[in-house]
Write a structure and sequence with these properties.
Low-confidence stretches: none
Strand order of the largest sheet: 3-2-1-4
Structural class: alpha+beta
Oligomer: single chain
Distance between the termini: 33 Å
Helix content: 40-55%
Number of domains: 1
Radius of gyration: 14 Å
Order of helices and strands: HEEEHEH
CATH class: Alpha Beta
Length: about 120
């Protein structure tokens, strides 16, 4: 089995667990690349993205470096602000195929500090 297939299986398993727990709430989806981190809040019932943020934006860069936990925390704060503006308080956290560790955890913790509940 190829690495891509394994990642897709892990992501699918995570999302199926979220469907059982989420009960129609929007989800905070995280994508992590080697250089950047991206977050978006998705309403699956309507198939729309409610808010998004990434380390490519000026507010997401922490001292010029984009692949650090500090940059991920800045993205978490930014997504929390934009979620509040869109009227979202409660959601479920979709970590995808990534472990809840490092940059993904830093983003989640910063989003919680920003006022999101998950």
């Amino acid at each position: 089995m190829k690495l891509r297939d394994k990642k897709l299986r892990r992501a699918r398993r995570t999302r199926s667990a979220l469907r059982k727990v989420g009960t129609g709430q929007p989800r905070l989806s995280v994508f992590r690349s080697s250089k950047h981190i991206y977050a978006q809040i998705i309403d699956d019932r309507e198939g729309k993205t409610l808010a998004h943020a990434s380390s490519l934006e000026d507010g997401g860069k922490a001292g010029g470096k984009t692949a650090t936990a500090d940059a991920a925390a800045a993205v978490g704060k930014l997504i929390a602000e934009r979620a509040k503006a869109a009227g979202v308080d409660k959601l479920v956290f979709d970590r995808g195929p990534y472990l809840y560790h490092g940059r993904v955890k830093a983003l989640a913790d910063a989003a919680r500090e920003g006022g999101l509940e998950f």
